[in-house]
Design goal:
Layout (H helix, E strand, L loop, with lengths): L5 E5 L1 H10 L6 H10 L4 E5 L9 H10 L4 E5 L3 H10 L3 E4 L19 H13 L3 E6 L3 H9 L4 E5 L1 H4 L4 H20 L3 E5 L7 H5 L4 E6 L1 H10 L1 H24 L1
Parallel strand pairs: 1-2, 1-8, 2-3, 3-4, 4-5, 5-6, 6-7, 7-8
Helix pairs in contact: 2-3, 2-11, 6-8, 10-11
Bound molecules: pyridoxine-5'-phosphate (PXP).
């Protein structure tokens, strides 16, 4: 159980705006510093094969400037493995990647790719990089993540966040709670991310097993209007308040 959830801020979409004009600004490196000033405990970026937002230059600079932790989301490919060895982020989060997708649409099939992923996890851990696997909230996938030696899992919260009815929302939340408990029993650190917004962060931050939330789109979108520091601070306050209430409730 962690008393405060760590907030990882994903700055990919600052780079998306920059790449829309192939301009030198806005700079995700500056955004990352401001996010840290606002209370981010980690900066997350996804270096995609097509380089549609974050560029190699960003990653190199972030490695030098990030004061908290740097989490690199990447596909399990030889090219990205080389980038990880060169950059040495604190954490690598392995994600599935499809060129046509707007954003990461689902979790890794850890069961289907267990042999290849096991090798990759071992190589990254040997380089002293903490390895997390982005998975759907599915017990079997999480069990396999533990079996192949991952340090952590990040639960894909997209279905919960996008649920249109109260019943589906409740069912998806129950699924996340159950799988988070399984992960912790298997000694995996449990993180969560995708689609988290100011309106739904409290439900996820209340799950004591979840120690880290990775949030991008909603924070960057809000930062356009209120600034990065404040957008991060507001998200952190909501997450922390919800966690504190959940901790108190658990002690009663
Ligand atoms: N975690 C992972 C593994 C992701 O791929 C993404 C999207 O890049 C996020 C978290 C952040 O999702 P969102 O931008 O919807 O907050």
């Amino acid at each position: 159980m962690s008393l405060l959830p760590r907030l990882g801020v994903n700055v990919d979409h600052v780079a998306t705006v920059r790449q829309a004009r192939h301009a030198p600004y806005p700079d995700p490196v500056l955004a990352a510093s401001l996010a840290e000033l606002g209370g981010a405990a980690q900066i997350t970026v996804h270096l995609r094969e097509d380089r549609r937002h974050i560029q190699d230059r960003d990653l190199k600079l972030l490695r030098k400037t990030v004061q908290t932790k740097l989490n690199l989301e990447m596909a399990a490919t030889p090219e990205m493995l080389r980038v990880a060895f060169e950059t040495r982020p604190d954490t690598v989060t392995l994600v599935p990647e499809r060129r046509q997708e707007v954003t990461t649409e689902g979790g890794l099939d850890v069961i289907g790719q267990k042999d290849a992923l096991k090798r990759l996890v071992a190589e990254l851990k040997q380089a002293e990089i903490h390895v997390s696997l982005f998975v759907d909230p599915n017990v079997e996938q999480v069990q396999m993540a533990a079996r192949i030696g991952a340090d952590a899992i990040e639960l894909h919260t997209g279905r919960f966040c996008e649920a249109r009815t109260r019943d589906v929302r409740a069912e998806e939340l129950r699924r996340i709670v159950d799988v988070a408990k399984t992960a912790v029993k298997l000694k995996l650190a449990c993180c969560a991310g995708h689609g988290i917004h100011y309106d739904n962060v409290a439900d996820l931050a209340s799950i004591l097993e979840i120690e880290e939330l990775n949030i991008g789109h909603s924070i960057v979108a809000r930062a356009i209007f209120v600034g990065m520091e404040r957008a991060v601070r507001e998200m952190n306050e909501l997450a922390r308040a919800a966690r504190q209430q959940a901790v108190l409730a658990a002690q009663r």
